[in-house]
Design brief:
Helices cover about 35% and strands about 15% of the residues. The chain has about 150 residues and is an alpha+beta fold. Strand 3 and strand 4 (about 125-130) form a beta hairpin. It is elongated, with a radius of gyration of 24 Å. About 20% of the residues are buried.
C-alpha cells in the first residue's frame, strides 16, 4: 500500500511539472480566470466607517445596565451602546458596529476595538474600558469620519 501511494505521488508530481513547464498553459486544477473577476463584490452599506468590537474580550459577565439582560458580556454592552448612540445621532448609515471574534490582542482588562474609515490605511487596535471610555471612543469614531 505504501509503495502504491509513493508511485501515485511521483506520478502527480510529474504531471504538475509538465503543466508548469509548458508555456501558456495552466494547471487544469486551477481556475484560469483572474481573481478580481471570479469573486463578486458588493459595495458596503456603511459610508464612513466600520467599528469592530471583539466579542472575546471582556467575556466576564458585565454589570449590565439592562436588568433583563443578565447574560450579556461587557463587549455586548459596548457594542449595543455604540449602536444605539449612532442611531440616536443619525449616524447609523454612515457607520456600522460589528461584533467580531478574537482580534489577537487579548488585553487583561478592556475590550479591543478597531475603527476603520475605509481609507485603506492600517487602523489601530484600541483597548477600551467598556464603561469609562465610551464617550471617548464615540468621539474617536466621529473624528475618523471620511
Amino acid at each position: 500500500m505504501k509503495k502504491l501511494i509513493r508511485r501515485i505521488k511521483k506520478l502527480l508530481q510529474r504531471i504538475f511539472k509538465r503543466f508548469a513547464s509548458t508555456s501558456g498553459q495552466t494547471s487544469p486544477l486551477i481556475n484560469s480566470r483572474p481573481l478580481e473577476t471570479s469573486i463578486p463584490s458588493v459595495p458596503p452599506r456603511w459610508e464612513s466607517g466600520l467599528v469592530l468590537v471583539c466579542s472575546q474580550c471582556g467575556n466576564e459577565r458585565s454589570n449590565s445596565f439592562h436588568p433583563t439582560n443578565k447574560s450579556s458580556t461587557a463587549s455586548d454592552d459596548l457594542e449595543n451602546w455604540l449602536k444605539s448612540r449612532l442611531k440616536f445621532e443619525g449616524l447609523w448609515g454612515e457607520f456600522r458596529v460589528v461584533s467580531t471574534s478574537c482580534l489577537g490582542i487579548c488585553p487583561k482588562s478592556g475590550i479591543t476595538v478597531v475603527v476603520s474609515n475605509g481609507s485603506g490605511e492600517n487602523s489601530p487596535c484600541l483597548i477600551v474600558n467598556p464603561h469609562s471610555d465610551r464617550e471617548l471612543l464615540y468621539s474617536y469614531i466621529k473624528q475618523n469620519k471620511k
